[in-house]
Amino acid sequence: MKYLLGLAGLAALASAAPAETPTRIIEEQMLERNPAAAASAAAVTIAPGSNPFATRTLHANSVYASEIAAAMANVTDATIKTQASAVAEVGSFLWLDTIARVPLATTLLAETPSTEILGLVIYDLPGRDCFAKASNGELATGQLATYQSDYIDPIAAAIKAAPQTAVALIIEPDSLPNLVTNINATACAAAASDYKAGVAYALKTLNLPNVAMYIDAGHGGWLGWDANLQPGADMITSVYKTAGSPSQVFGISTNVAGWNAWSELPGEFSTTSDAQYNKCQDEQRYIDAILPLILADGMPAHAIIDTGRNAVQGLRLAWGDWCNVNGAGFGVHPTSSTGNDLADAFVWVKPGGESDGTSDSTATRYDSFCGLADAYKPSPQAGTWNEPYFEMLLKNANPAF
Ligand code: BGC
Question: Where does substrate bind (predicted)?
Answer without folding.
Answer: 95, 97, 219, 222, 322, 350, 354
